[in-house]
Amino acid sequence: MASEFLTGAEIYIARENYNLAAFMIHQALEQALSTMVTVKTGYQQRTHNIKRLMRYGGLISWELITLSDSFTIENSIYIDKISNIYYEARYFKSTVFKKPIIEKMYAFATHVLARSY
What is the DSSP code (8-state) at residue 117? Predict the structure, then answer.
């Protein structure tokens, strides 16, 4: 299912609907990370927080912990932005995402999804 959310993000990027693309990127990461943690540990977390899910995933995969811990400032920025998307979209609806940041967030999500299975 996570890959389908990422495909949805691709479609929204092509249509220049960057806010929905951002939301789909968040959903893809949430789905992939939640599934990985549940399958590998049996722990069913109930969070939309990508930072927290990345930390949980990092307990299973060293590659994910290196992405989530601030080994690079750039990764930290993307994780912060993606983590806030769910709440922004649900409660505030005022954030406007631009193409360059969405493309970088999409690339980051693709990178994470490749390591979460």
Answer: -
